[in-house]
Amino acid sequence: MSQQKSPDNVSIDEIPVDIDNTQSAEVDSADVPHEIESITRGLAGEHPPTNPLVVLKAARWWYIHGKGGSDPAFRWSIEWARHLATDTPSDVERFDEFLEYLVSVGIADERHELR
Q1: Which of the chain's termini has less CB crowding within 10 Å, N or C?
Q2: Model-level pTM?
């Protein structure tokens, strides 16, 4: 027997994708799945993830649920994956924008809590 899925609720890698809220540019920290929040906090921390596939998983979620290609969490995730793949320095300004964005969506109250 096959299970029917609602067209408004799909899943990729067991992380739900809310079709109605795709690229809404309005992200509420309560809507961020625990795994994505954990990866995202890791990207802001002293010891960020070193597996580009994990980083790209977060990038995908932020792209879909945030501001698309201009979402700061998406952009930093892609920047960090590029750094991992090419071993080139990452863009510090993009990192600062990412930290400010996490505060603005409620992932942390202040930037220093993320580091």
Answers
A1: N
A2: 0.81
